[in-house]
């Protein structure tokens, strides 16, 4: 095992936040994940699905749309984070970007709902991805801005569990209310506009005390990526998220064309799979988040989580039945719930410079989001290559293991002392 690092950089002393802060923060992320993942899991596949005799074209179109959205998010998140880090003295750093991001997301969700065809839908989804990335960078920065290390695992658990609950909430509302594609997008736009804006206004955002000078920021532009441990952590996070996306993003297509279920049956079973996945994500997120706060050994927990995620791909590749898919969903939820939660707290611990929290956590976010959006593109190619889904799940398992190996190359930083009450 690699030796522990000394503390990465001198950090200001933070007081513990209360339940109100955590509740509002959780609601913000619940809204973000709901509006981002409901289209990924349900609305976009339905919007872009094609006839049974040409179903592979629908899979490829879906991968294309998600891929171009991911490319936009790669740029938008870190840029917005860097600009918010450089706010003028006396101005709010995170709130304006959070509100702007959620409103852009809401507008382009409406545009996506009224779009038709892969190119129009793809262009509208770029706007959604930019809005989500900008608001996510702002909210994520609050973890490092305002929380002591002993609460970062709990905050990361809120982010991770909200991701799973958001999928259930969004897909559940659309399916159970019998909403069409357009009405589903309108509902999501209302959710992010209302909840996201309210959360941004309620969460504290103290004005910046000193503005970072442009020359100083430019010299630090690639400092975080040159940090050995931060770079290895990012690599592992990216690859593991690609593995997760391969195992989950094509679920609806797998039910429709891999298990040959009718559309209505597939939608109902997709909701059931998501509920199982969510239950285990939440359990793993809460347990491992608290455990990592108590032990401080986030690196080991993150690596173990990738092995559990890999097991899910093995199960479904060997036994391609709906029952086995349920078991795989549970394993995927356990593995990814632990990985996303402890991995985010691990990333916050490894931040090289406290002056660039939003930019660097924006990079952390987009590596995860990029993995989630590369996955469907890669998955579409693998489906087209073999005319089925088995290779998708095999590659998902392999990438999960590779992600764990890359994470193992990052050293665990020394834990900060407990803050005084």
Automatic annotation (TrEMBL):
User: What Pfam families does its record include?
Assistant: MFS_1
- Report the residue ranges that make up the Major facilitator superfamily (MFS) profile domain in this protein: 233-421
Q: Does the keyword Ribosomal protein apply?
A: no
> Is Transmembrane a UniProt keyword of this protein?
yes
State its location(s): Cell membrane
Q: Gene3D superfamilies, alphabetically?
A: MFS general substrate transporter like domains (1.20.1250.20)
The record's keywords, sorted A to Z, are: Membrane, Transmembrane, Transmembrane helix
Specify the domain of life of the species encoding this protein. Bacteria
- Tell me what this protein is called: MFS family permease
